[in-house]
């Protein structure tokens, strides 16, 4: 099968570049899903559309009844590309700046390779929309796709420029954070800066909120827990000599534990309530809960570590988020990182950068990783 792998390796590069030219925003990936469907039909798979623009391909095995699934995210970002490559985005103001074009190419490469095999167990290829938002994985879970195809385990990968090319990174248990975004509006009584006793200063109250929120992590959360509470934006006031009657704050919460995440939210609400009573103001807070934490199954982690002992690197958990977590709330799953950092070739730019790119040789490494998993879990007998 060496010749076929070589051919697929070249085809993955073509696929990646085709997809890179036409990035689309979450739940609007129509060109992308049509391209994926065309390839999967060529490989001979049964196909189903899910979550609007998502695609599921399925192939039945002969022995084991439970399936294993592999997931690739398919959406791009609202980023204007500045890489200068000849396959740059043709969509104005949109770019595959997070490697999803590579993820799709790898999964299509896997589907191509396995298309000629009689499989020992069922396999599902899940091309998921809207990872960057609003979260296509949750929609797919809600539509019952995992149950319909009797999926036992699910695997996914992400290209990561913080990890050296050739390395595969993984963490046991919590690997990526649960996230939430909050907006706070303080409404008080404005007045002249020369007569502060006649007013209630929203800016001063905002400073109290910021100071008190800092105590949540340091005094209410167990020190060994990983979490972040950041206020990144503040707006208030009209002039230097007017006491502000309202202030807006915006920020983010991140934690590796849902319990810790909820504790932070509870303490924020308690602090707000206390300040309302203390200063006789209104403090309105809206929190949008986003993705749950990515938590790798410990059993799958040990298996994965054994399979990839030559290239695996145990990495620290990261405060970034991923909606792969919705699958892991339903079934055991494992998410890992495909290193892409290559300083000699200039592949050093971070995810979501307008300069982000990677050496397409890593597509072969991703395919090899998926094939090793297939062999271990009995999809194919040899590789």
From TrEMBL:
Q: Which InterPro entries match?
A: Amidohydrolase, Bact_exopeptidase_dim_dom, Peptidase_M20, Peptidase_M20_dimer
- Per the annotation, how and in what number is the cofactor bound? The Mn(2+) ion enhances activity.
Residues binding Mn(2+)? 98, 100, 132, 158, 352
**GO terms, molecular function:** metal ion binding; N-acetyldiaminopimelate deacetylase activity
UniProt xrefs under Gene3D superfamilies: 3.30.70.360, Zn peptidases (3.40.630.10)
- Protein's GO biological process: diaminopimelate biosynthetic process
Signal peptide: which range, if any?
none
Q: Which residues form the Peptidase M20 dimerisation domain?
A: 181-271
Query: Would I find Cytoplasm among this entry's keywords?
Result: no
Task: Please report the name of this protein according to its UniProt entry.
Answer: Hippurate hydrolase
Instruction: Extract the PANTHER family matched here.
Output: METALLOPEPTIDASE, PUTATIVE (AFU_ORTHOLOGUE AFUA_6G09600)-RELATED, PEPTIDASE M20 FAMILY MEMBER
Q: Which domain of life is it from?
A: Bacteria
Q: Which UniProt keywords apply?
A: Hydrolase, Manganese, Metal-binding
Entry annotated with the keyword Cell wall biogenesis/degradation: no
What cofactors are annotated for this protein? Mn(2+)
């Amino acid at each position: 099968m060496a010749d076929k792998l070589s051919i697929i390796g070249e085809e993955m590069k073509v696929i990646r570049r085709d997809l890179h030219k036409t990035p689309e925003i979450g739940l609007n990936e129509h060109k992308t899903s049509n391209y994926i469907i065309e390839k999967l039909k060529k490989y001979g798979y049964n196909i189903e559309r899910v979550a609007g623009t998502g695609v599921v391909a399925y192939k039945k095995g002969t022995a084991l009844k439970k399936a294993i699934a592999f997931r690739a995210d398919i959406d791009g970002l609202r980023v204007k590309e500045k890489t200068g490559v000849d396959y740059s985005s043709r969509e104005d103001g949109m770019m595959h700046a997070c490697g999803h074009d590579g993820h799709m190419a790898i999964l299509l490469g896997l589907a191509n390779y396995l298309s000629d095999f009689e499989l020992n167990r069922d396999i599902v290829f899940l091309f998921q929309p809207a990872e960057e938002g609003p979260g296509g994985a949750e929609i797919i879970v809600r539509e019952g796709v995992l149950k319909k195809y009797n999926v036992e385990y699910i695997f996914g990968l992400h290209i990561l420029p913080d990890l050296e090319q050739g390395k595969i990174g993984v963490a046991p248990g919590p690997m990526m954070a649960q996230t939430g975004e909050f907006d706070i509006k303080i409404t008080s009584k404005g007045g002249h800066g020369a007569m502060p006793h006649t007013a209630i200063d929203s800016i001063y109250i905002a400073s109290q909120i910021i100071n008190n929120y800092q105590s949540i992590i340091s005094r209410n959360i167990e020190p060994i827990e990983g979490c972040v509470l950041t206020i990144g934006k503040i707006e208030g006031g009209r002039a230097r000599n007017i006491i502000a009657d309202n202030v807006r704050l915006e920020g983010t919460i991140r934690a590796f534990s849902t319990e810790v995440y909820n504790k932070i939210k509870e303490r924020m609400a308690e602090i707000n309530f206390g300040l309302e009573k203390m200063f006789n103001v209104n403090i309105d807070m809206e929190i949008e809960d986003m993705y749950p934490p990515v938590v790798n199954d410990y059993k799958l982690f040990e298996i994965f570590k054994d399979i990839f002992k030559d290239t695996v690197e145990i990495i620290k958990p990261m405060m970034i988020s991923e909606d792969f977590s919705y699958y892991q709330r339903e079934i055991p799953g494992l998410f890992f990182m495909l290193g892409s950092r290559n300083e000699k070739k200039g592949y050093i730019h971070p995810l979501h950068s307008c300069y982000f790119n990677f050496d397409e040789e890593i597509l072969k490494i991703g395919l090899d990783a998926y094939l090793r998993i297939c062999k271990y879990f009995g999809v194919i007998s040899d590789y």
